[in-house]
Design brief:
mainly alpha
Length: 209
């Protein structure tokens, strides 16, 4: 556990040093639509977005793997695994889910002849994932310093932040769909097929809820 925490801390320091400007732009874009559209024109932000997104997935994987109430008891495929191996497995599942979603979004964009629109939706989802993760990190550090990392408070905090972030993201998606000339029906269809259903299956399997 110690070397995983050390790795996350070192990664966080590198992020603050080398991706501080892109991070500020991405987080600001979550609250200002015009900045989010301007970010799409800056190719250098895309690499930083992927790095930040994978870092947040690592933080969430650490939280899931080492919280005493999550993955307890361990799912059958993970039984006999040490906590570091559970962390690696959860991280692997998140990476596969991330890559699968990227492929599906590109296929849909190609199918409806609107790759730019679908890619913008996908990158917007990444931005709000990054925002939610960075809001959660201070609470995770604070509760961890109080030796309350496995208590109910951190679970409630994580749930509140995740729900709030998802609501803001869903509202942003509405604006993107309307700006592109699509109806709310397609917005609901998008959320159900690529967001809510896969997310529910992932939570049910990984977190054991």
């Amino acid at each position: 556990m110690d070397y995983i925490v050390l790795g996350l801390v070192v990664s966080f320091c590198f992020i603050l040093i080398y991706t501080r400007a892109p991070l500020a732009l991405l987080l600001t874009g979550c609250f200002r639509y015009n900045i989010s559209t301007e970010n799409e024109e800056q190719g250098n932000i895309r690499f930083s977005r992927n790095i930040l997104c994978f870092f947040i997935m690592a933080v969430i994987s650490f939280f899931i793997a080492f919280h005493s109430r999550l993955l307890s008891p361990l799912p059958v495929p993970l039984q006999g695994f040490s906590r570091p191996l559970v962390f690696g497995t959860v991280m692997g599942v998140f990476c596969i889910w991330f890559l699968f979603k990227v492929v599906i979004i590109r296929i849909i964009g190609w199918t409806i002849d609107a790759p730019g629109f679908m890619n913008f939706l996908g990158r917007t989802g990444q931005d709000f994932c990054i925002l939610t993760g960075f809001v959660f990190i201070p609470f995770l550090v604070l509760l961890g310093s109080l030796n309350n990392l496995s208590g109910s408070a951190v679970l409630i905090t994580a749930a509140v932040i995740a729900v709030a972030g998802y609501i803001i993201y869903a509202l942003r998606c509405i604006r993107i769909f309307l700006a592109a000339g699509y109806s709310l029906f397609f917005w609901i269809l998008y959320l159900c097929t690529l967001e809510l259903v896969p997310l529910g299956v992932l939570i049910h399997y990984v977190a054991g809820i």
